[in-house]
Amino acid sequence: MTGMSDLNTRSEGNRRCAVPGGATNDDQARRGLILMAQRPVVRLTAIVATSLISALYPMGARAELKFERTSIDLQQQAGEDNLTGVFTFRNEGDRPATILAVRSTCGCTTATLEKRVYQSGETGEIRVSYSPGSETGERRKTVEVILDDAERPTIALELRATIEPVFKNGNRIASWQKGDAIKPREINIEVSRREPLELTSTLSSSDRVEASLVPIEVGRKYKLTIIPKTTADPLKALITVRGRGEDSPALRILALVQ
């Protein structure tokens, strides 16, 4: 009897041994039964929810964003530094259309969207702005519209523009040979775009080079004078000429001692 009692005691101890978290084997068993009882309820709830959502729309219904046009030709106006194109669209599908993101392919292009979800029959627009900066000539900029649509996940929108140069191409380098006599170099600047541009400031990237600007015809023609303080050592400096404000177009001239 004593041996049987000791066996029962050891068995009881084995059944109640501690497991991580402080729970016993019996506790784990009870939790397992509870989880098994709950799982069918969770599955049933998911099935019911899916069925209710599907019942809201007819079989085969889908969202379908249609743009009035997917490319726009922009004409730069006099004095215009930012160009904007507006792409209008309509949801011609049977379900709401969701725009997940609008993504630009370059930092000079930005796109704005009023909202992300459009009901069936609802219209909207995407405004795309392009800042040419120093870019000139024919330019193409693309924006990708990312949709919650497996059949058509992206739509590409394109801006096309011809950017006229702000300044006429001319000499953009003022150079000296090492050991040359210190003589100024003069560079003529001419504004070529239709809108006049008043140049008001010069900035040298090196304190070893000085630059001054004299207007010949305000808004159209200027004379830039550049002179190094010494030609004894090699030197490279960038001279920036621009109008008022940080957004003003800038002309950059390289000063070089070699």
Return Rg in Å.
36 Å
Q: Give the amount of beta strand, in percent.
A: 35-45%
What value does the average pLDDT take? 79
What is the helix content?
Answer: 10-25%
Distance separating the two termini: 108 Å
H and E order: HHEEEEEEEEEEEEEEEE
Q: Which descriptor suits the 3D outline?
A: elongated
Number of alpha- plus pi-helical segments: 2
Tell me the structural class.
alpha+beta
**What is the number of E strands?**
16
Give the biggest beta sheet: 5 strands, mixed
Uncertain spans? 1-24, 33-54
- As laid out across the biggest beta sheet, the strand order is 2-9-8-4-6
Describe this structure as you would to a colleague.
- There is one protein chain.
- The longest helix has 31 residues, at 25-55.
- The model is unreliable at 1-24 and 33-54 (pLDDT under 50).
- The N and C termini lie far apart (108 Å).
- This protein has helices spanning 2-15, 25-55, and strands spanning 65-67, 71-75, 83-91, 97-104, 109-113, 117-118, 123-130, 137-147, 154-163, 173-176, 185-190, 199-204, 209-217, 221-228, 235-243, 250-257.
- It has a 5-stranded mixed sheet, with no helix packed on it. The chain has a 4-stranded antiparallel sheet with strand order 1-3-7-5, with no helix packed on it. Strands 10-16-15-12 form a 4-stranded mixed sheet, with no helix packed on it.
- It is an alpha+beta fold.
SSE arrangement:
Elements (H helix, E strand, L loop, with lengths): L1 H14 L9 H31 L9 E3 L3 E5 L7 E9 L5 E8 L4 E5 L3 E2 L4 E8 L6 E11 L6 E10 L9 E4 L8 E6 L8 E6 L4 E9 L3 E8 L6 E9 L6 E8 L1
